[in-house]
Amino acid sequence: MRITQPLNTTRTTTAELSVGELLVTRGLITDEQRRNALATQAQTGSRLGTILIASGAVHPRDLYRALADAWGAEYLDVSRSELDETILPRVDPGQLIRESWIPLFRDPDGTIAVATAERPTETLHDHIELTLGEPVRLVVSSDWSVSKAIQLGYRDAVVDRATEQLWRDHPEASARVVLDRRQQIVGGLTLVSVIALIVLFPTATLSVLSLLLATGFLVGIAFKFVVCMTGARKEFEQTVTAAEVAALTDEELPIYTVLVPCYRESEIIGQLVTNLGRLDYPSDKLEILLLLEADDDETLAAAKASNPDHTITFVIIPDGQPKTKPKACNVGLFLAKGDFLVIYDAEDRPDADQLKRAVIGFRKARRGTVCLQAALNYFNAGENALTRMFTLEYSFWFDYMLPGLDARRLPIPLGGTSNHFRTDALRELGGWDPYNVTEDADLGIRVAARGQRVGVIDSTTFEEANRAYGNWVRQRSRWIKGYMQTTLVHTRHPIRLVQQAGLMQALGFGMLIGGTAVSFLAVIPLYLVFLVSLCLPAAEVGKYFPGWVLWFSLTNLLLGNGLMIWVSMMGAFRRRRYSLVLWALLNPLYWLMHSVAAYKALWQLATRPHYWEKTAHGLTHEDTDVPAPGDHTEREWNEPRVAGPVVAR
Amino acid sequence: MTTLNANGTSLGSPGRSWPGSSAARNALRLAIAAPFVLLAFKAHAGGFNDHTNASLRQHARAIHWGSSDLSFLGQLYPPLPTGVAGLLPSTFALAVLGALGAGVIIEALGARLRARGMSWPALLALLISFGASPSFALTATTDLRAFMALTFLALALEGFLRFAFAGQTHGGFQAGLAIGFAALCDPIAIVCAFGFALAAPLIARTRFRDEKAAGRATAGVLLFPTVAGVLGWTFLCWRFNGSAIGWLHDAAPELGFGHGVLTQMDTATRALGRPLLFSPVFVLALLLLVYRRRYLMAIGTALPLGCVWVAGWVGMQFHPQWTSVLLGVVGVVALPRRPGRTMTALIVLVAGTGLLLKWTLASSPLVLAWQHALLH
Questions:
Q1: Which domain covers residue A27, as residue numbers?
Q2: Which terminus in chain A has less CB density within 10 A, N or C?
Q3: Do the domain assignments include residue A391?
């Protein structure tokens, strides 16, 4: 794993300066490298060792050997050490990760040997003895080795925590159970009642259902339009200006963890490494964790071959069910050492200064803000009709809806990527729900349900729009299934939701999440009714629907579709994607595709609720090259830093 | 929060923000509306024959709302004023509603002038010249259909200018939506929508010179609400009434060139003379733009005049006082921002002259009858 201890402190000490000289004396670095590192240190305030490792000038093992000598302690590489499993359960692995130490084994005299990446001071010694309740002997090891040893030793605990902790701590917040007892009863009774009413009073029931559907549709559209107009009013408001970013000094930047879950992404992993290398953030304050699945040798091999930057660490997620992105992210969260944390997808191209903007954004954010969502858009918008429609949709959503929701203090369902968190707050929230297939949206609503906030920052991450129709339906069905899961989870205690989040927030959640899923399910029936009403004489249709119901429904359909097409056009206009504007006229067909995906989602919710429909990336034919990464110091050793129990074993 | 445009230049708030709170805004609107309510009451008490609102109300009452065959849709156009007239209990209530609308439109103009740094003397002179004119007061309190269309067109124009010149998509939303609503009040708005759409690419060519499809996109987003609204209405009429464009014939019975293309052109041109005479602020704004070589802005400002001319040419009927009010709105929103002392004095002078002309040269029988009713 990446270094821990040097990341946690920014104060310079005399001992560290002497370490630099020591490394020069031993021939591990040149004097020029030492001077460069000292110059960087003056800017960032980071430890010299951290800077030297991040720049690739020195191997962590060599640095910690030198540190151990300077501290007068024994050095031990513990990354593959045998661990005494009788001692490990006494300590919480989270504490070990935070404090960078691990109990190893008993010496013949019964003393417990403990490896630490911190200076083995008297205070630390006493603290660890107090924690373990027995005499200890401290040895020094690199923080990467310590972290790796912790993962080895606590493999099952980490996986269990990533998978089940939310369920254990807050079962009502987890989608592990699709419907709780009360939902089963209420849902079952409602279904039976509706069927009975249709059989007994078909005309009246159809009319009422049609009216309810049309009213819900109208309210949903009106809600989106109002929020969108609010977002449009915020068009030129910048939460963070370029001047503020420029004024930010490296010294005041916190440690930032970047999580990148990768599964079957061998095609684009090289591009990912390049894109991450473009992030404008001091490398010694950046911790990038590539979360790789244990059964995905191909991606791991491609990642190793991509010659990753020294800020990048591979974390192997042990195999097991559910195999979902949130589970991988929870493992990443467990290991994260940053004050802030962000998730990127493998194909993402974030704006280079996005992390800095997030840091400033958090400083300026309203009280209780735990997450900032950046805008998402696509770099291959013009590839085919599907990518155009996808881009139209995202432009509207991220450029109008999210700023509008933010301004109106309504819940913001997070997008799957580019969500920036306060790491501590995220841990308190319980991390992501590994049983929810839109864990991001669920988390955004959970934040609101606890009276906290999600904000937005005006920075964009460009992604790859889905260009293949089957792949799109798979992806969209997962999203809609996740919306259904999220709706069911957060409506288990509706009164509590209103009490905690507020009435408007609860209604906003209902319309954004539940309403979206229901409206997609309604598209096919509504279009069919529309077509039938066109084909039959008005008098014939009037037998089943009173005239005013039909009039209301048709007007509603025309108005709703018209408004949503229009805001879609405006979204593209705002993004200056002018050639896409008229493509918005095809939205009714696009919504029909959504409806197909929604029925697939409903079927899967009943049959495979936790199944993660994998979206294939790297399908684009557009040139995905990006400018070469910045001037990175060439690394001096080629050992890929791979952490994780499976590879380690 | 900092408000910047794409180039980093400050633009000011995209929405109306004067007065600051919505309570204060509403109070101001009510205060402005109060004299118009009083005028409506006086005219009503003085026996003024408000035949325009009366016929709108009669039209609304003749409709069999909710009949199961929905054939009433064919008679419903213009749906917004007709729907409102169907809901309100009397002609006087329509006049009061119009008076309240007058408060909204004058407050909106005031907000626009404040946002553009107009000094208080100029602001007051312009608003008084605009609001205290007989044509405005008469339209507001006696012709709800025309006034609703006018209000929406004024909002559309204000949004259009922000959208086309400052690149604010919120202005585009306002323009598109308002003009779409205006089209549901009066078919003349359809002509205006096409006017906006035609002017937009000209403006877009300058603003987005290097960007492909910018002109088409600008026209598309402006035109879409009106086209969608008109097509949607046409579809509903066709579906439930069997006649797709019967509503348009009813709303504009003289539509076409029944009196000859050139004759109608001549009539439409002559019809603009008197409204132009009553709108010196509009003329001033236009001349200033041309003098400052802001030709595209001048085109945008002259656009409503062109639309009125085209509408008159193709046989749409509307009262000349409606044109006066429209040009009055355009003139106010198109004046230069932050005028100096000389310019302020000129604006006050021209606004005062306009008001004087409107009262002294008013000779239409309708206006005279209305003035007579007010005095008795």
A1: 5-71
A2: C
A3: no
> For residue A574, is pLDDT > 80?
yes
CATH code of A123's domain: 3.30.300.160
**Token reading at B107:** 């407050």
- Cβ contacts of B316 within 8 Å, gap of 6 or more: B187, B188, B191, B252, B254, B255
Give residue A623's pLDDT.
Answer: 56
Three-state secondary structure of chain B: CEECCCCCCCCCCCCCCCCCCHHHHHHHHHHHHHHHHHHHHHHHHCCCCCHHHHHHHHHHHCCCCCCCCCCCHHHHCCHHHHHHHHHCCCHHHHHHHHHHHHHHHHHHHHHHHHHCCCCHHHHHHHHHHHHCCHHHHHHHHHCHHHHHHHHHHHHHHHHHHHHHHHCCHHHHHHHHHHHHHHHCCCCHHHHHHHHHHHHHHHHHHHHCCCCCCHHHHHHHHHHHHHHHHHHHHHHHHHHHHCCCCHHHHHHCCCCCCCCCHHHHHHHHHHHCHHHHHCCHHHHHHHHHHHHCCCHHHHHHHHHHHHHHHHHHHCCCCCCHHHHHHHHHHHHHHHCCCCCCHHHHHHHHHHHHHHHHHHHHCCCCHHHHHHHHHHHC
Is-contact A124 A136, C-beta < 8 A? no
Cβ-based contacts of B224 with chain A (< 8 Å)? 562, 565-566, 569
Give yes or no for a cis peptide into A322 (omega within 30° of 0).
Answer: yes
The reported pLDDT for the residue numbered A533 is: 79
Of A153, A182, A204, which one is at a domain's C-terminal end?
A: A153
Compare all CA atoms of chain A with the CA of B166 and give the residue at the minimum distance: A236
Give the separation between CA A251 and CA A477, rounded to whole angstroms.
45
Asked if residue A643 has pLDDT above 90, the reply is no
**Is there a domain that residue A25 lies in?**
yes
Contact yes or no for A570 and B173 at CB 8 A: yes
Q: pLDDT: is A50 or A636 the higher one?
A: A50
Number of Cα atoms under 13 Å in the Cβ half of residue A410: 24
* DSSP element (H, E) containing A369: strand A369-378
Pick from A19, A39, A71: which residue ends a domain? A71
The C-alpha atoms of residue A267 and residue A464 are separated, in whole angstroms, by 13
Interface test with B, best of A207, A225, A233, A236 (most B CBs within 10 A): A236
**What confidence score (pLDDT) does residue A206 get?**
84
Q: Which of B5, B213, B221 sits opposite A579 (nearest CB)?
A: B213
Q: Spell out which residues of chain B touch residue A237, defining contact as CB-CB under 8 Å.
A: 1-3
Report the predicted TM-score, pTM, of the whole model to 2 decimal places.
0.79
- Whether the per-residue pLDDT at A588 is higher than 90: the answer is yes
Residues of chain B with C-beta less than 8 angstroms from the C-beta of A542: 68-69
CB pairs under 8 A between A and B: 112
**Residue A12 — pLDDT band, cuts 50, 70, 90?**
very low
Domain count, chain A: 2
Q: How confident is the model over A199-252, as pLDDT tens digits?
A: 998 888 888 888 888 888 888 889 999 999 998 888 777 778 888 998 888 888
pLDDT tier at B247, thresholds 50, 70, 90: confident
Q: What is the mean pLDDT of chain A?
A: 83
Which letter does DSSP use for residue A285 in this model?
A: G
Q: Flag if B170 and A554 touch (Cβ within 8 Å).
A: no
* Residues B100-146: tens digit of each pLDDT: 999 988 998 898 888 888 999 999 999 999 999 888 898 899 889 98
User: What's the token pair of residue A90?
Assistant: 């006494």
Reported as a single tens digit per residue, the pLDDT across A97-123 is: 888 888 888 888 888 888 888 888 888
B240 and A236 in contact by Cβ < 8 A? Answer: no
What mean pLDDT is predicted for residues A394-404? Answer: 89
pLDDT for residue A370 is more than 90:
yes
8 A C-beta contact, residue B215 and residue B203: no
